[in-house]
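Whiteboard transcription, Tuesday session. T.W. wrote the structure tokens on the left side:
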């Protein structure tokens, strides 16, 4: 037994000695490390700390290839892809196989590396919705909870990175609401909300985490304010009056008595009367006043409007009742129509009131009118235009008094042809693209005044563009525009009263002239160029041909001549008679006869085409030129030719002696 124990101890020591090169430092059996999830790929994840640096060991990655690669030379694990703790695993294992060829008992050892992925604050809190909508009743006390059905979640690791705090961002209406506890998604009323001042509004809620740096997101909260019954009834007028009665019911001015609920709830209203002599009158649910007695007393009474469900909701109006036998206008309503250009001082109408007091004097006045449109003669009741009208309708209240009683009437003025409005363009800005046509499009303005006309003008770039009175905008000359240029012009619209408005127009020339127009112009220029080149080539070829034939004939004649004949140095048209100089050429000479002395000279002779070719004997009689009869002429003159030039008979007149020998050229 002891021998076996000793054997095992020696065997273990031997194995350790053999496998020493694959052991980790500190005799660890695994590697543990932590990295943040934002570690960049290709970064060193961890170094494998082997005890031996022997190059004999062989390393191989057998687990974790989806995350890392192995640098066998440096013995490092390299990160191959981005880490995300929230969407992937927050930890993983990598196994590296270590082989030692000299170890026959343990051919390989597996070394595990455990990587823990640490969280960073890379996710902002997210609301369940981007928008929320709630209804809030007006006049709720401060601190009342109005909304708590919302929350934001942060998927970062639990801790500061995922702790969410809430607040309402500063804004135009943020004063109305509040989040008292920033860690709880609960919204309360912060300030009085009055439906009569605001019916709806919106605020922005922020959710922010506690990471470094912190991240935040927002959501909108739309609030609709609900009306409550917190307003008293409202009368259509504060003051009413009457001086006319029909079938015991009074005709009330300036409008029938009417009141409605001051809230949007439209609660039912009823009326009551109070004041001196109010028992002599009654009022129904429609606001109609009825006389209960026989006579109409002149008095002032108070009309009360109350809500049926809440009588404490009450408003009061004043009704003045005048004895109808005292004073009244002939009409309760006067109406005139005037032109906006009517002259100041023009009489519009004369109103008249009557009184039962024959000894009293009636005076007229205008009350409750700030327009100062008209004036009234207090004695005659004539109404004149006092200022230029600025709107189309006026309602003016007139009053007549005899010193004891008063009465009122309405004066309505309608103004025609009033130019109150400035022209308005249909668009704030116009954009046009230049195409094949010079016409760009229409710019249109409208004037809400009736029977008014507009004039259009360009305030710049008049040399390039034009506009007519229909607002049609066009280009004056397409060729004058620069390509790929945006032109900005200002267009003015003016009405007959001088009211003006402006608009901005952008015109894009793109490539300048349109492609079709450019193609046509290019083709035309190309055709003109081809025609010009063709004409030039024609004349050049014609000239070359003429020179070529002339040189050819000259060379031909000079090469076929002899010392016994006439050397032709020039050719002439057969229909002409010219004088030419015959010069010695190619060592050939002209000889004079009978002079014994041979000399070289230039002879001027006249060449003429004779009417009929003379005989060849004519050569012998010439004293001026000694010519030996060429055999070619004797045999057949038609065979002697150079190119298209044929021998023709001409007469040679020498400048000495007489005679005119005829030879063939």
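and on the right, the sequence the group agreed on:
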């Amino acid at each position: 037994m002891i021998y076996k124990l000793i054997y095992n101890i020696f065997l273990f020591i031997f194995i350790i000695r053999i496998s020493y090169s694959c052991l980790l430092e500190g005799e660890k059996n695994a590697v543990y490390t932590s990295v943040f999830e934002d570690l960049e790929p290709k970064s060193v994840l961890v170094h494998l700390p082997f005890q031996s640096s022997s190059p004999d060991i062989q390393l191989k990655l057998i687990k974790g290839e989806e995350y890392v690669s192995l640098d066998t030379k440096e013995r490092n694990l390299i990160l191959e892809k981005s880490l995300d703790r929230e969407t992937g695993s927050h930890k993983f294992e990598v196994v590296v196989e270590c082989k030692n060829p000299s170890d026959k008992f343990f051919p390989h050892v597996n070394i595990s590396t455990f990587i823990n992925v640490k969280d960073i604050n890379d996710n902002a809190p997210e609301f369940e919705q981007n928008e929320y909508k709630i209804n809030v009743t007006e006049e709720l006390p401060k601190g009342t909870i109005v909304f708590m059905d919302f929350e934001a979640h942060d998927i970062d690791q639990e801790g500061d990175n995922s702790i969410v705090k809430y607040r309402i961002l500063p804004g135009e209406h943020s004063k109305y609401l509040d989040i008292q506890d920033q860690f709880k998604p609960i919204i309360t009323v912060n300030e009085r909300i009055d439906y009569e001042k605001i019916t709806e509004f919106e605020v922005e809620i922020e959710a922010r985490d506690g990471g470094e740096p912190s991240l935040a997101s927002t959501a909108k909260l739309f609030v609709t304010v609900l009306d409550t019954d917190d307003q008293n009834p409202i009368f259509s007028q504060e003051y009413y009056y009457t001086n006319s009665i029909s079938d015991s019911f009074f005709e009330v001015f300036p409008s029938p008595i009417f009141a409605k609920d001051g809230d949007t709830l439209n609660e039912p209203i009823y009326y009551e009367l109070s004041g001196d002599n109010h028992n002599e009158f009654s009022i129904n649910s429609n606001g109609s006043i009825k006389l209960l007695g026989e006579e109409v007393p002149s008095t002032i009474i108070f009309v009360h409007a109350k809500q049926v469900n809440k009588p404490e909701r009450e408003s009061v109006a004043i009704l003045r009742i005048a004895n109808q036998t005292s004073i009244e206008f002939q009409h309760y309503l006067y109406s005139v129509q005037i032109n906006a250009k009517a002259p100041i001082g023009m009489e519009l109408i004369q109103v008249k009131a009557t009184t039962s007091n024959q000894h009293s004097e009636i005076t007229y006045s205008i009350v409750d009118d700030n327009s100062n449109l008209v004036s009234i003669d207090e004695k005659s009741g004539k109404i004149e235009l006092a200022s230029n009208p600025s709107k189309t309708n006026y309602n003016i209240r007139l009053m007549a008094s005899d010193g004891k009683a008063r009465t009122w009437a309405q004066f309505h003025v309608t103004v025609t042809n009033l130019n109150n409005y400035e022209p308005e363009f249909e668009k704030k800005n116009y954009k046009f693209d230049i195409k094949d046509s010079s016409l760009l499009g229409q710019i249109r303005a409208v004037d809400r005044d009736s029977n008014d006309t507009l004039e259009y003008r360009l305030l710049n770039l008049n040399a390039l563009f034009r506009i007519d009175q229909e607002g049609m905008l066009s280009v004056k000359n397409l060729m004058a525009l620069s390509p790929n240029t945006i032109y900005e012009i200002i267009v003015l619209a003016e009405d007959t009263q001088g009211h003006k408005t402006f608009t901005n127009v952008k015109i894009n020339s793109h490539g300048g002239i349109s492609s079709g127009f450019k193609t046509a112009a290019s083709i035309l220029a190309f055709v003109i160029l081809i025609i010009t080149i063709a004409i030039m080539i024609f004349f050049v070829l014609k000239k070359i041909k003429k020179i070529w034939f002339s040189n050819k004939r000259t060379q031909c004649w000079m090469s076929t001549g002899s010392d016994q004949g006439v050397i032709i140095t020039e050719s002439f048209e057969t229909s002409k008679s010219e004088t030419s100089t015959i010069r010695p050429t190619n060592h050939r000479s002209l000889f004079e006869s009978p002079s014994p002395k041979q000399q070289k000279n230039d002879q001027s002779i006249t060449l003429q085409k004779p009417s009929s070719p003379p005989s060849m004997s004519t050569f012998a009689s010439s004293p001026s030129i000694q010519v030996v009869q060429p055999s070619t002429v004797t045999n057949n003159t038609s065979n002697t030719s150079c190119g298209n030039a044929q021998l023709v008979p001409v007469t040679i007149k020498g400048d000495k002696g007489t005679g005119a020998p005829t030879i063939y050229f």
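Someone added at the bottom: Residues 586 and 665 are 18 Å apart (CA to CA).
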